[in-house]
Amino acid sequence: MKFFKQFSMSFLAVAATAASAATSQPFVATTASVTLDTSYLTANGYTVSAVGSSTYNATTGVLTDPVQGVNLTGNPGPVSIDFSDTSGMAIKKGLTTVKLTNFTYDAATNSLYGDISAGLLLNLTNQSLLTATTAVGNFGGVVSGNDVFGAQELNSVTSSTISRRLGLSASNFVLSDAFNTFLTDNGVDPAAMAFVATMVKSVNVGSVPEPSTYALMGLGLVGIAFTARRKMAA
What we know:
Blueprint: H1 2-10, E1 23-25, E2 31-36, H2 38-43, E3 47-51, E4 55-57, E5 62-72, E6 79-83, E7 88-93, E8 96-106, E9 111-117, E10 123-139, E11 142-144, E12 147-149, E13 152-153, E14 166-175, H3 177-185, H4 194-199, E15 200-205, H5 211-233
Antiparallel strand pairs: 1-5, 2-5, 2-15, 3-7, 4-5, 5-6, 6-8, 7-8, 8-9, 9-10, 10-13, 10-14, 11-12, 14-15
């Protein structure tokens, strides 16, 4: 395949910039679900399998990946969600296999990072890969049915010693600006990696409120404030 050949020949043990220091936060154990576009995979001859402690359902196109850490880059500040270091997925076409592992989701930029390897010729570490153009998430709060109340948004979380639940829903991915620049600077056409963004439909962790829930919560707060004012005026 032209992409794999072009990409592999362009790099030899290239490492991306390491992530900045962060403070670990206790969290309720959870697993991420990465939904892939099975129609696209089948039409283009790609075969996906799980790596490490991940699991993959070829029928639904859902890859599960354990979350091993939630880190804060400020207080308050955005969180980064760290998935299992050795887990992820392997994408195969013909005789070539590319592994994507060690995912991290950065709420500050809504970007997904990971390691990319294809044998001895390709080794990218902590590389910015995709950016979600649609994302909502929270940390903490109380779960009631499919709703979450009192949680902090992922881009502004206060440090705590209490274990909190994590929620994330990210979709409509594109290649990140950093990855586009990285590829271009190294003489590789970004179109060669466009398939990664095309095949990833969404990344979900735990539960997040739907837009309608936010609206109802807002109306409820307005109602409470209005009632309180009427009582004070009486």
